[in-house]
Amino acid sequence: MGFLHEHGKQIASTNPLERLNREIGRRADVVGLFPHQTAARRLVGAVLMEYSHDGAAFSRRNFRQTFMEKLYRAANAPERLPDGERQHD
């Protein structure tokens, strides 16, 4: 993958994701059997919304602000074509 070495620890760690999956599984066990797929989606959506509203997802900053700003600028920059190529509409 194209990640910087300095960010390897944060990227390699899946603990927050595993914790979230366990929470979804725990709540699904309480419900038992879902009548249809939409009900399962609602449960997962509710858990994710609760997780984001609690600030658990943002309690720790994994990347430096300057690095995140560089990523944002790169993601929002217009795509550059190689010399001699033109964009077709």
Task: Provide structural commentary.
It is a single chain. With 89 residues, the chain is mainly α. It has helices spanning 8-12, 15-31, 37-53, 65-76. The protein has a domain at 15-76. The two termini are 32 Å apart. GO terms for molecular function: DNA binding; transposase activity. This is Mutator family transposase.
Content of β-strand: under 5%
Looking at the structure, what is the overall shape?
elongated
Summarize the amount of helix as a percent range.
55-70%
For the terminal residues, how far apart are their CA atoms? Answer: 32 Å
Which regions are unreliable across 5 or more consecutive residues at pLDDT < 50? none
Q: What's the average pLDDT?
A: 74
H/E element order: HHHH
Largest sheet: none
Estimated radius of gyration: 20 Å
Sheet/helix structural class: mainly alpha
DSSP strand tally:
0
Number of helices: 4
Family: Belongs to the transposase mutator family.
Keywords: DNA recombination, DNA-binding, Transposition
Protein name: Mutator family transposase
GO molecular function: DNA binding; transposase activity
Summarize the structure.
This protein has four helices and no strands. The chain is mostly helical and 89 residues long.
Q: What's the arrangement of secondary structure elements?
A:
Blueprint: H1 8-12, H2 15-31, H3 37-53, H4 65-76
Helix pairs in contact: 2-3
